[in-house]
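I hope you will forgive my troubling you with a question about protein structure. Here, with my thanks, is the record as I have it:
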Amino acid sequence: MGIAPPAATLADTPAVPALISWSEDNRPGAETELAAPGKFTTPVAVLSLAVLYFIAAKLGLLINIAPGFASPLWPAAGLALGALLSGGLRLWPGILIGYFLASPNLDMTADGIIIAFTSGAGSAIQALVGALLTRRLIDRQTLTIRDGEIPVFLFAGGVVATLIAPTIGVTTLFLSGEINGSEYFSQWLVRWVGDVLGVVFFAPITLLLWGSTSVSIKRALRISIPLLVTAALLLAGNMALLAVENGRYRAQSESRINALIDSTLVPVNEVLLTLDSASRFFSASESVSYDELSDYLRVLKTNPLVEAVQWLALDAPGSDSFSRRYALGENVIDLTDNPDMLSRAHSAGALNKTLIDAYARPDGATGLLALIPLYPDQGVFGGLLAAEINSERVKSLLNREIPGYDLTLQVTDARDIWVPLSGTDQKTQPQAHSWSHEVHTGDVRWRVNVRPQYRFGEGGTGLGANLYYALSLVAAMLVAQTVLSGVSRELAIARSEKSLRESRSRLAAILESPCDMILAVDNTLNVIACNRTFKQLIKGLTGCTPVSGSPLPTATDAKGRTFLDYLASNFRRAMAAESVTVSQPMDLAKENEGPVWIESTYSPVKDADGSIIGAVQILRDITDRKALEEQLSSQVEELERWRDATLGRENRVLELKQEINRLLEELGRPPRYHSATKDHRGA
């Protein structure tokens, strides 16, 4: 009799039509999952971190802006902080080991070991301080930075904590003499900027990949790609900055260095000019004595660059022999082992050209020999003036006046064959250099090739570099804030949606668990939710199943219309802030079956502000209960009749017993039924 709803359990309960429809592509958690590294024991984790830090440090050194200088992007700083946040503070020895082995200053000297160890300790301390400052800002379930805490994380971990390692590292380099005072701030600035950018870009990626048991590929790409692209752009900007700073440095130093070269080579030019004037002195005189020549060249005797001056006279005009040699001082130029030089000198004399060539001195050193042709007899070659110039003193003078540069001194005469004076044997064009500066003296040209022993920021970085660093930090912070906020909001939405789905599943299970027919509608009487039993009832009345978000189906017969009108009127009463409970028979049964008794309860649904936003009704088939009530009522009436009949029969028996006792009393006998005596009844 009535409607028999099927039993429902959580296992076989279908999902209730949802207000938010999920597709297979946009459901949170529907992405492909990538297994992350499992948990390691402490020694294995420390060793793993040391290896990863070593690799990250070597990559950072590959992109340093000058050899031996700090990197403008130090990924190892972000790796260290992310590893300690996800793996625990106990992993700090891995940072020390990794930095120590990767340090460019590490060598077999005590200073190299001390610098590498101290700088590694600074990096480990920096990561520990950063982790202590920021670990409360991390969501331990997702290992991501909480949305509202991202600016605090970037400032505490990426700006404040990163002051430690650059300060310790650069101070160690300064105290060990690796850098001078003018380089301190620029070295510190580049290292600090590199550590900040490393933390900003690589700490979130390390957090995502290091400690999670599973990592969403899409989520990893959403974090990694924008951060890595921004890091690459900033790195390219640093390379451009290096070119700009090199140009600035060269523009500032080239004119100054050239002026120093000119002033340094003045004494050398004075030697050649004096010898050249002596040649003209010979040409203008009919004869020149040794004393006259010695007196004329007396200024050369006090020049520290001149080792010896000698007059090589021909034996006779047209002769190739220089047997007459007059030393104009204590030192003598020995050309015994240099016959080719005399031959070249004779050829140069015939052409009236000054000859400059390397000279092998008796002590094995290399000198510089200048040979000046003499014309005592109307243009006929009459001999040579030979002057030995101490090229080592020239180079020492240049290096003293222009420290901090690799200088290559070369000289050539009219033959245009460059003679290197830097200890090499080659007589070719100069090696790679930044620029060359030449000084001319007659046929002789002195060339100094300049290559700065340049380290970025020597003497301080320019205003443009400092502005670029500031803009780099701002851009990195903004990009990281935007990316991490987006991911954090996405995770929050995903968690909310997951919680909503779980709540809806629980609601569906609750709706399906009872045998009652449950329906919830909004203010416009559109269906919000209903259970399977109610759907079966409505389908039996209308032939259609209720759909969430739509009105109830329209009935085609009077019985269905009556029932739906009944529901609508009670819903309106409930939405007028009136709870309604009604029990009445309704003609909902099949043919040849009696009416169905329905007990219905209608209650308003309110939001957090107390406003009514809908109503819920619970229909319960109480036909069987009504039948049982009727059966119990008839049984009670029957019992009451039996009770009445039973009570009358007991009174008649009592009266008979009393009558017998009275007759026995008249006969003088004792009463037979004591229970019927007055005394017994009174007791």
